[in-house]
Write a structure and sequence with these properties.
heterodimer; A: 394 residues; alpha/beta; OB fold (Dihydrolipoamide Acetyltransferase, E2P); Rossmann fold; 4 domains; 5-stranded mixed barrel; 5-stranded parallel beta sheet; 13 strands; B: 73 residues; alpha+beta; rod-shaped
């Protein structure tokens, strides 16, 4: 029975024994293959939460963890770098069930699946709350809202400062006290919002949105005084965090808490531990600047005095009585700064002498002021800084 | 009142003081600098003097319009 030719390629296209695999353009190198696999694994699942038991955990270097996450059916090798393990603290013991947030990838050197874990939370003992917070944090991080390069510098002298907080809380009182002490020329715009309870996130989002609609606001403080973990929940709310991130002007978070950091703290440009601390950061210190101005003022007065003494000396050498009298007035140590400047201004004709001009006098001592006083042939004396020069008009 | 101008004034004042402290400035120029320095110093002191803190509350009416009213503590 003849063979069906379609099943058998023409013998000329079959690889001959002399063809080495490396000559075939369609063959991938191992690293190419693994690279392609890595790409497809990484693009299939970017960041994902996985629940599993930790096993065979080994800590290397200064705290890089290598371990396996497993359940009844399967397992995956994981790595968690020191940057992230420090947030976990002690390594979990064998068999601990955890939630792990990470990026699946392929470790190219070994051609093995790996998960690069960035957050690990034991399932026992952590509430849904904390898991939820970690999820929001991951979402904010993914959108770049926690990136350090996003942080804006605070204005040095804010003129219009918006404060989003509760109208009744102690926080507002503290804020006003600090503003009055540090920089009373600031205008405070209080944008009231409910800061705890079910309605708080929506109220905060609305209030923050209002700040964005106001013109000319230089800086926004968002916060509240201390409270229980429950009381502070609104500041971990994703909508609130995104609203803060969307503020057109720099922001300071001021959530009164002892240990925990709220997500609002991570999104704001600057984090303060309390509303009072936020105001300390927000406003310049009037007294500090006043001292600075005073010290410049006294340096200024000193420089002024020294200058006038130099002028006075020069004038004294000139020997003119009026000038000497002026010299005395100028160098009077009690003369106040402003008056000195005024007097110096009055001296302005003498500026000319300082530049080396000379004075012409007629034989009777009169100072020559006009051309008509010097008809051709008139003899006069030219007074220069180091003496007199007999002269004649030509 | 703009704080920026306070900042600019203080910087300028510092510059003026430095120029006056050096002997490079000629008398003519020094006189102009004195005059400017006195004005800047006076302005800075004015801006740093005591003031009444202004506190206002931002409210939104039913039509979605923002308004501002003085806040009584």
């Amino acid at each position: 029975m003849p063979k069906d030719p379609s099943l058998f390629p023409d013998s000329t296209s079959l690889p001959r024994p002399s063809d080495r695999p490396s000559d075939r353009p369609t063959a991938l190198s191992v690293s190419e293959l693994v690279g392609v696999l890595r790409g497809s694994v990484e693009s299939a699942l970017r960041q994902v939460w996985v629940k599993g038991e930790v096993s065979s955990l080994k800590s290397f270097g200064k705290g890089d963890w290598y371990f396996t996450l497993r359940d009844a059916e399967s397992c995956i090798r994981c790595v968690m770098w020191k940057t992230y393990t420090t947030r976990v603290g002690e390594p979990p013991s064998e068999g601990t069930e955890v939630y792990a947030l990470g990026n699946p990838t392929v470790w190219e050197k070994k051609g093995e699946l790996r998960m690069a874990v960035v957050v690990m939370l034991p399932t026992a003992g952590i509430g849904l709350q904390q898991l939820g917070k970690e999820k929001v944090r991951a979402a904010l991080e993914k959108d770049g809202l926690l990136a350090p390069e996003r942080k804006r510098a605070l204005p040095e002298f804010p003129a219009l400062l918006a404060v989003v907080t509760s109208e009744d809380g102690a926080a507002l009182h503290d804020i006003i006290i600090v503003a009055r002490r540090r920089w009373p020329r600031v205008r405070l715009l209080i944008v009231p919002a409910q800061v705890q309870g079910d309605g708080a996130p929506a109220a905060l989002v609305r209030a923050i949105g209002r700040v964005n609609r106001l013109q000319g606001v230089d800086l926004c403080v968002v916060g509240r005084g201390g409270g229980s973990r429950e009381d502070l929940l609104a500041f971990d709310d994703e909508r609130v965090c995104r609203a803060i991130a969307a503020l057109r002007m720099p922001s300071i978070s001021a959530v009164g808490h002892e240990t925990d950091i709220s997500l609002a703290d991570l999104v704001a440009d600057v984090r303060a531990a309390t509303p009072s601390a936020a105001m300390e950061l927000a406003l310049p210190d009037r007294v500090h600047y006043l001292r600075h101005a005073e010290s410049l003022g006294s340096r200024f007065a000193h420089a002024l005095r020294r200058r006038t003494e130099v002028v006075a000396e020069r004038l004294a050498r000139g020997g003119d009585r009026i000038q000497v009298a002026m010299t005395r007035r100028i160098s009077d140590p009690r003369t106040r700064l402003e008056r000195m400047a005024g007097q110096l201004e009055a001296l302005s004709p003498l500026k000319v002498l300082g530049r080396g001009y000379s004075v012409a006098r007629l034989a009777d001592g009169r100072v020559v002021r006009r051309r008509a006083e010097l008809p051709s042939g008139t003899e006069f004396t030219l007074r220069v800084s180091d003496g007199e020069v007999p002269s004649r008009a030509s | 009142m703009s704080g920026e101008s306070l900042s600019t004034d203080l910087r300028r004042l510092e510059e003026i003081v430095r120029m006056l402290e050096s002997d490079d400035t000629d008398l003519d120029q020094a006189l102009l600098l004195f005059e400017e320095g006195v004005a800047k110093l006076r302005a800075a002191r004015e801006r740093l003097s005591e003031a009444e803190l202004r506190i206002q509350k931002v409210l939104e009416d039913a039509a979605g319009q923002l308004r501002v009213e003085d806040l009584r503590e």
